[in-house]
Specification:
Protein name: Large ribosomal subunit protein mL53
Strand content: 15-25%
Organism: Escallonia rubra
Radius of gyration: 21 Å
Helix content: 25-40%
Strand order of the largest sheet: 2-1-3-4
Largest sheet: 4 strands, mixed
Number of helices: 4
Structural class: alpha+beta
Family: Belongs to the mitochondrion-specific ribosomal protein mL53 family.
Main location: mitochondrion
InterPro entries: mtLSU_mL53, Ribosomal_mL53, Thioredoxin-like_sf
Number of strands: 4
Shape: elongated
Length: 128
């Protein structure tokens, strides 16, 4: 998960009962496997003393920053969103390295073309 990120900032008040997702996400970031995937990723923890809701801010390796409300989103959902966006970053990078334009635009007429080895199943047709 950390391999797609350059920075993680986790803010929470330790006495706030809404910190479960923040604490779980912090534990995931501190896991050996996560740290080994990107040792350069900064994990910053800000312990708050006010009533500010827990939040997690991540910065992707391409500089895009995203903030998550850790009271309304589970740690697993945050992790899944990061992995999904990270896979898009990897795909984009592969296309750019191959000299292809990004995003890939598939013309509408090509979407309806048949290809060898493709089977079509008609769901509403009847044989008599």
């Amino acid at each position: 998960m950390l391999k797609f990120l350059s920075r993680v900032r986790i803010e929470f008040n330790a006495l706030d009962p809404r910190t479960a997702a923040s604490m779980e996400f912090l534990a995931q970031c501190n896991a050996r496997k996560a740290k080994e995937s990107n040792p350069a990723c900064q994990v910053v923890v800000k312990r708050r003393t006010d009533d500010h809701p827990p939040q997690i801010t991540v910065t992707f390796v391409n500089g895009v920053e995203e903030m998550f409300d850790a009271t309304a989103t589970t740690a697993q959902d945050i992790r899944n969103m990061i992995l999904e966006k990270g896979q898009m970053l990897e795909t984009e990078q592969m296309f750019k390295e191959a000299g292809e334009k990004w995003p890939v635009v598939i013309p509408e007429e090509e979407l309806s073309q048949s290809f060898p080895g493709t089977k079509y199943y008609l769901t509403n047709s009847r044989r008599i």
